[in-house]
Please model this.
Amino acid sequence: MSFVSVSNVWQKYGNRSILERVNVEIDEGEFISIVGASGCGKSTFLRMLLAQERPHKGEISIDGGVTAKEPNRERGVVFQKYSVFPHLSVRENLIAAESFDTAFGRLSGEKRKTAAERADAMLERIGLNHVADQYPASLSGGMQQRLAIGQAMTAKPRILLLDEPFGALDPGTRLQMHDFLLELRDETNMTVFMVTHDLQEGFKLGDRVLVFDKPRWDPHDPGMYGATITYDFDARDGGIPFQLKEDADVSA
Ligand SMILES: Nc1ncnc2c1ncn2[C@@H]1O[C@H](COP(=O)(O)OP(=O)(O)OP(=O)(O)O)[C@@H](O)[C@H]1O
Ligand SMILES: [Mg+2]
Model:
């Protein structure tokens, strides 16, 4: 059985269909990029993988069971909007991410020292060591996003869910974060789901690129039908299929 199995999943809000007949099987360690038009249900799909919401119909199983509701060591998340703790300093945000598996989220003594050392190593990798003692509100959007990425990766989760994680970053930092994510993945064999509006990024990082789109459309009632996975591209060679270059606005 696959590591992540999505069988005939539908989602609707009120009488608006968002997703329909979503079926996909994912092996452990795969990097899945997700693209699709704004509003087609990509974040909704991630929320269902996180068990933050239940599908209207269908089943999602992860490692043979249903997913837990709270983030834990098994699962790291970077939301579309920044998701760091505002009342903790940059370093404390990373230490907090280490402590998911300890009772009451507190670390003491030796463990805290090790967590602090690991936090400092992570700060170095995400280029935030010079602002370790500042609070998130004093950082730029891109720096907060790097902190959120570092936080999600600190616990080396088995599944990492990334919702447009690099959107707020300048091109140079974005490339650094790509390298960092690929390195980390080599170290851990994480399974990654990453939503992106950048097709090139999707194909560069992903093993597969899933395209969400509406296969049917009622012009009189746009909420009638939902989106589904219309393409499942093998992206292991890193190249963008010629057909998509021609039609690159698929993720616009
Ligand atoms: N809790 C909710 N209640 C009602 N409607 C919702 C809810 N969450 C999302 N929607 C609607 O569902 C649709 C899909 O939203 P979603 O955020 O999943 O899209 P998306 O593909 O992530 O878009 P974007 O690329 O802009 O982030 C949108 O029309 C949105 O308004
Ligand atoms: Mg979204």
